[in-house]
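Morning. Coffee machine broken again, so started the prediction first thing and wrote up yesterday's gels while waiting. Chain of 185 residues, entered below exactly as on the submission form.
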Amino acid sequence: MHSGVTTAPDGHENPNKSKKYGMRKGEDNVENFEARPADEVRRIKEAIRFILEGNPKLNQIEVVEKLKGMDFYTSQPTVSRYIKEMNYSRDSKEGYIKKEEVLVKEKKEVLLDYLNNSDRVRRIRHVKMIAFKTAPGEAQILEMHLQEAYREQILGTVLERESLVVFIEDNEVGLEMLRSIGMHD
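Came back before lunch.
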């Protein structure tokens, strides 16, 4: 059983340093393999996360060196495995980032490309929002009548059971609609 205490090269015990685990170079006997305790793996992964959040552009050898500075002794292949288990991915520009973040980043890039280059999307910078609170079920009726009467002025609506939000352009046409329904002086 691992006591958590290792012996330094000078023969003194150091309770803060992690023990070296795994097979030693040249050993092929599986019985000599000693697995790293789960708690230590968790602490090493926390340290890797801390290191990568501070400097995501480090390579794995540099991460191993930073871990040594934090008294964690592990190999580059082990760091590679832990990074993979932690769902990190290496981006050529950003360095190590979480895989979910890679997906979100890619989705944002696709969306921004679509918004910036599509002739089917009209951007409206100045919008007014009007909220109506109604009796249960009345919001749908109100929305239908507003859409029929003010189709050209209404940009969009959000309908709930007891409420309706209407978006109109903040220009003279939109203000005329607001005046006609008694919402603007």
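Residues 1-18, 22-32 have pLDDT under 50 and may be disordered. Going to sketch it on the whiteboard this afternoon.
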